[in-house]
Write a structure and sequence with these properties.
This protein is an all-alpha fold. It contains two helices and no strands.
């Protein structure tokens, strides 16, 4: 069970890291885009630079798409691990209940066996006492 829980914790951490990485990339891209837009508005840009900005934007969008995909995969992995952990916890609960039931039956059986042995011993002692006190005549 602890391994399953550890896997869920790792999945949660990976999901959080993926989300942080995506948000960081989005922020960085937004900052660079804002700077480039300011340069465009100030007309301090040449045609070659415009082409590079277009290429950069495509690359930035590809990077964001990849980060979003990784975040989605991490979320799916987390859901899978959480579901598996829940199944394992339920199975552990069922197994624990069954073990308690078996232990209860075993204890009752052992008590009954001990009681039967005690009765048998008492009957043997009583028979010996009766045989000594009342010998067979014959």
């Amino acid at each position: 069970m602890s391994e399953r829980t550890a896997r869920s914790v790792r999945a949660r951490s990976e999901e959080a890291r993926s989300e942080i990485a995506r948000r960081s990339s989005e922020q960085r891209i937004a900052d660079v885009s804002r700077t480039e837009l300011e340069r465009l508005e100030a007309s301090n840009v040449r045609a070659g630079e415009l082409a590079r900005v277009g290429d950069w934007r495509k690359g930035a969008e590809n990077e964001l798409a990849a980060r979003r995909a990784k975040e989605t995969q991490a979320r799916e992995a987390l859901r899978t691990e959480v579901a598996a952990e829940a199944v394992a916890r339920r199975a552990l609960g069922v197994a624990s209940s069954e073990a308690e039931l078996i232990d209860g039956h075993r204890d009752a059986w052992q008590k009954e066996r001990a009681s039967a042995a005690e009765r048998s011993e008492e009957e043997a002692i009583l028979e010996q006492w009766t045989a000594k006190r009342h010998p067979l005549r014959g």
